[in-house]
């Protein structure tokens, strides 16, 4: 009943919530710019008092939820950040007990000798400074494109990381490579005993460039993924599942490969961060320049919000939905004040 | 042969660990137990080489890399760590015997 009610309310908001001339025009609720003048923000995380935004160039920006005061941190990394192409300081996730446990986790790109890698590392906040303490997963192949990068704690308390194929498609099917995979570890970096492959961080494979991870109330896991020439996908992730890249994509099917929950067909979404609320996935879209609203049960996608350019990540707390734009990343058209963190939906009412 | 880990060779060692696991023996110059442990390690490594088994083993004065103790989770010396894909996946503090280290190297080299 609750689901039907929510869907009805959202449908009403979609048809009646817009007013002309509003730059932040969206489909529901009042809108607000939380902060502006961010530089390629890639990830937004949240504790009870602060929003934490990771910028691809290697900055962590904190925003006080009450005062909206912005503070920038340059985390001290063990390796020199390599923020060329799509790489850089990407995913950022707070420890589940932050700030009592003053730790966070980051996924970043670096160069060692002639090779570039991504690593998932633990960071510590000490004396007002963030510093990397230790890598938990290292040697994730990196490239100028397809670095993946989203990291999230699942409802099972495990830390998940989305790794792209780094521009080498066949590695997504190679069980000995960490590229083109969704990875799963304990918060201390150890391999969970119930991972589908013994002594391996690999949780699922056959991914091209996954950049969004979320779970529903039942614990079902979903990931967004950039397809080749459209065919962007939203997948339900099962342990040990193979999602087919580069053997199949979009509408193609083959035994042993899991087809997407929904794909974009001939349209380009370029999906990145995502959240789930009451059976609905809200997906930040870069090239698509919108937030998609996808019904998991109906497997249909409609536009929830547009007009803010490229959207990299999305966050929901209580009933509010926030997003970060990504118009300064070299592929967008930055407007005055970009990039911004914006309130998209203030409540369901 | 056990190679010395220096600031100059660190990146090459890190790169090597991306391809296959390697071992780092952490010590300090004035530590007697470290000297005993290293002798055992040298015997183990020599025996492996005589059997045509080549493992990459480094020795490192932890005083020259103070930050590595935290990065690799080392709480005391001597410590033999297994470095796999840039991550310290095992730390051994009790060297016990050359035979024990021989088995340990064999077991963790994959």
Automatic annotation (TrEMBL), chain A:
Keywords assigned: Signal
Pfam families: GSDH (PF07995)
Gene3D superfamilies: TolB, C-terminal domain
Top-level taxon: Bacteria
Signal sequence bounds: 1-21
Domain Glucose/Sorbosone dehydrogenase, first and last residues per copy: 39-331
SUPFAM superfamilies: Soluble quinoprotein glucose dehydrogenase (SSF50952)
The keyword Signal is assigned to this record: yes
Listed name of the protein: Glucose/Sorbosone dehydrogenase domain-containing protein
Organism for this UniProt entry: Fictibacillus aquaticus
UniProtKB/TrEMBL annotation, chain B:
Gene3D superfamilies: Glutaredoxin
Biological process, per Gene Ontology: cell redox homeostasis
InterPro entries: Thioredoxin-like_sf, Thioredoxin_domain
Domain Thioredoxin: 3-105
A Pfam match: Thioredoxin
Any single Gene Ontology cellular-component annotation: cytosol
CDD domains with a match to the protein in the record: TRX_family (cd02947)
Name of the protein this chain belongs to: Thioredoxin domain-containing protein
Organism whose genome encodes this protein: Fictibacillus aquaticus
């Amino acid at each position: 009943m609750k689901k039907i009610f929510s869907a009805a309310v959202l449908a009403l908001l979609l048809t009646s919530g817009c007013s002309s001339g509003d730059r932040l025009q969206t489909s529901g609720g009042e809108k607000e710019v939380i902060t502006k003048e961010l530089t390629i923000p890639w990830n937004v995380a949240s504790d009870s008092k602060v929003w934490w935004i990771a910028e691809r160039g290697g900055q962590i920006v904190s925003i006080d939820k009450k005062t909206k005061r912005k503070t920038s941190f340059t985390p001290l990394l063990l390796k020199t950040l390599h923020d060329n192409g799509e790489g850089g300081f990407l995913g950022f996730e707070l420890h589940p007990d932050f700030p009592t446990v003053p730790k966070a986790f980051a996924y970043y790109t670096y160069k060692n000798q002639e090779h570039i890698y991504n690593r998932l590392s633990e960071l510590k906040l000490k004396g007002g400074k963030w510093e990397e303490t230790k890598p938990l997963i290292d040697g994730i192949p990196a490239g100028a494109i397809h670095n993946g990068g989203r990291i999230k704690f699942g409802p099972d308390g495990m830390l998940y990381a989305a790794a792209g194929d780094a521009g080498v498609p066949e590695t997504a099917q190679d069980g000995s490579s960490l590229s083109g995979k969704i990875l799963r570890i304990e918060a201390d970096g150890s391999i969970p005993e119930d991972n589908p492959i013994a002594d391996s961080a690999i949780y699922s494979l056959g991914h091209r460039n996954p950049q969004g991870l979320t779970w529903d109330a039942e614990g079902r896991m979903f990931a967004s993924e950039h397809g080749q020439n459209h065919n962007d996908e939203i997948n339900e992730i099962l342990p040990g599942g193979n999602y087919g890249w580069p053997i199949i994509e979009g509408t193609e099917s083959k035994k042993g490969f899991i087809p997407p929950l929904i794909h974009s067909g001939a349209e380009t979404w370029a999906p990145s961060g995502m959240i789930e609320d009451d059976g609905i996935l809200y997906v930040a879209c870069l090239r698509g320049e919108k937030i998609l609203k996808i019904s998991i049960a109906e497997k249909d996608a409609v536009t929830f919000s547009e007009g803010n350019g490229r959207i990299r990540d999305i966050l929901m707390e209580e009933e509010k939905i926030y997003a970060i734009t990504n118009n300064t990343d070299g592929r967008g058209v930055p407007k005055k004040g970009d990039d911004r963190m914006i309130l998209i939906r203030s409540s369901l009412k | 042969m056990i190679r010395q880990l220096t600031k100059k060779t660190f990146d090459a060692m890190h790169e090597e660990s991306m391809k296959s696991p390697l071992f780092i023996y952490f010590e300090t110059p004035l530590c007697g137990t470290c000297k005993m442990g290293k002798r055992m390690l040298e015997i183990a490594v020599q025996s492996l080489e005589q059997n045509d088994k080549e493992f990459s083993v480094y020795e490192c004065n932890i005083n020259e890399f103070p930050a590595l103790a935290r990065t690799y989770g080392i709480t005391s010396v001597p410590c033999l760590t297994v470095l796999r894909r840039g991550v310290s996946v095992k730390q051994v503090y009790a060297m016990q015997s050359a035979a024990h280290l021989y088995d340990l190297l064999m077991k963790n080299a994959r």
